[in-house]
Design a protein that fits this description.
5-stranded parallel β-sheet, 35% helix, 3-stranded parallel β-sheet, 10 strands, globular
Length: 277
């Protein structure tokens, strides 16, 4: 295994796009819609990010359940954005499946969803056993499942075999902002997967997003890193640029790393000597 060269170059880098469940997206940045002070700030940050896919926590955000309250659908029209309902706050497979079935009804049969089943309310670490169970049920029900999971390569492969259309390993704990703690496991998942791999959770700043993309991830999903920045709109712009730069660096192929083997950037032959001066 090496980090020195890209492993999945597109045939045409100029036409490079993210493909999930058969649909192409020009942006590889996916953003959440929670934790902002209001829907106006949500809208401005999402627009600044350039994201085309936005996640929405069905249990926490009004998308039509409460008829007399402001709806996210007005701030971010589904005609412009692809909604990705998620199961934030679910701790069992049954609860997650029930939540996404409700989302499908609220969004007129929408079947692209993000599955997350959490182990405990403190760490929000994924419960991979319940996650696999829920994924199998949802795939049988016709859902297109993007799944939040640990950075365990074996669990990632099980979820892919269950029929998930994208694997979303954490970089570090949700909301921690700790960045990528285990790039080696991410690399193993990326090299093994035949579906898109997107980092989900733990990104804190633009450099974290760039590193994820340089490793070869197909995209990055984030919420807290933007929503809880001192200037969410400006941070959204930074994340947009970081994801683009990281992707381009991955496609370009970085120079090899060398230990104690200096290579001058200018040629050493033919130098003018002091004697000839």
């Amino acid at each position: 295994m090496t980090l020195n060269a890209p492993t999945r170059l597109p045939e045409n880098a100029a036409a490079d796009s993210l493909v999930i469940a058969g649909r192409s997206y020009s942006s590889r940045l996916l953003v959440g819609t929670g934790k902002y002070k209001d829907f106006d700030e949500t809208r401005r940050a999402v627009e600044a990010s350039g994201a085309e896919i936005v996640t929405v926590a069905i249990r926490r955000t009004n998308i039509g359940q409460n008829k007399n309250e402001p709806s996210l659908l007005d701030a971010l029209p589904p005609s412009r954005f692809t909604y990705l309902p998620n199961t934030a706050g679910c701790f069992t497979a049954d609860d997650a499946v029930r939540t996404l079935r409700l989302a499908r009804e609220l969004l007129d049969g929408h079947d692209l969803v993000k599955l997350e089943v959490l182990a405990d309310p403190q760490t929000l670490f994924p419960n991979v056993i319940e996650t696999i169970s829920a994924a199998q049920t949802l795939v049988r029900d016709g859902f297109k499942v993007m799944v939040y999971t640990s950075d365990d390569p074996l669990i990632a492969k099980r979820l892919e075999e269950a029929g998930c259309c994208a694997i979303m390993p954490l970089a570090s704990l949700i909301g921690s902002g700790m960045g990528i703690l285990n790039p080696w496991n991410l690399q193993l998942i990326i090299e093994s997967a035949k579906v898109p791999v997107l980092v989900d959770a733990g990104v804190g700043t633009a450099s974290d997003a760039a590193v994820a993309m340089e490793l070869g991830c197909d995209g990055v999903l984030m919420n807290t890193a933007i929503a809880k920045a001192q200037n969410p709109v400006l941070m959204a712009q930074a994340m947009r640029k970081a994801v683009q730069a990281g992707r381009e660096a991955f496609l370009a192929g970085r120079m090899p790393k060398k230990l104690y083997s200096a290579t001058p950037s200018s040629p050493t032959a033919g130098l003018i000597s002091a004697k000839s001066a």
